[in-house]
Amino acid sequence: xxxxxxxxxxxxxxxxxxxxxxxxxxxxxxxxxxxxxxxxxxxxxxxxxxxxxxxxxxxxxxxxxxxxxxxxxxxxxxxxxxxxxxxxxxxxxxxxxxxxxxxxxxxxxxxxxxxxxxxxxxxxxxxxxxxxxxxxxxxxxxxxxxxxxxxxxxxxxxxxxxxxxxxxxxxxxxxxxxxxxxx
Length: 183
Hints:
The structure is a single chain. With 183 residues, the protein is an alpha/beta fold. The chain has two domains: 6-110, Dna Topoisomerase Vi A Subunit, Chain: A, domain 2; 121-178, no CATH class. It is built from eight helices and seven strands, in the order βαβαβαβββαβαααα. Strand 3, helix 3 and strand 4 (76-77) form a beta-alpha-beta unit. Helix 1 (12-21) crosses helix 4 (98-106) and helix 6 (135-146) crosses helix 8 (167-178). The longest helix is centred in the first third of the chain and has 13 residues, at 36-48.
């Protein structure tokens, strides 16, 4: 699979793994302290080819994603579930199977700020995504199936809305979880 946009990852091992999974140019941030020369590269390619942000599915990765999304609001986002990017307790893109990386990159999402949000905290309560003993697990499973990552309830509502998750795919994913088919 060839990807036109430039993929942004955290480390060199992530870059190497992504380039084994797909044909793409990759820029490495070098972690959360992104150097000026990296920003200059990103500034240049963001307007010409576009960016896909693929950070590690952990706290540091989400911080980097937010920082990049703020600077590059037109970027696309690819997510890998933690359980698909872990090896010997180490979480990172470099630990993911090649097919999982390719799958994540084939299901990118674009952030959008809607005036009329589709989802609310009432939806979180209604679907057991908040206020129940297994709510965090359900959000994790749902985030994995929808390829939007994990978040607390308030942030999850924001992700659902800004990543434009359709009601149909939301309900289908919940049905899969309720049927015991979440992977």
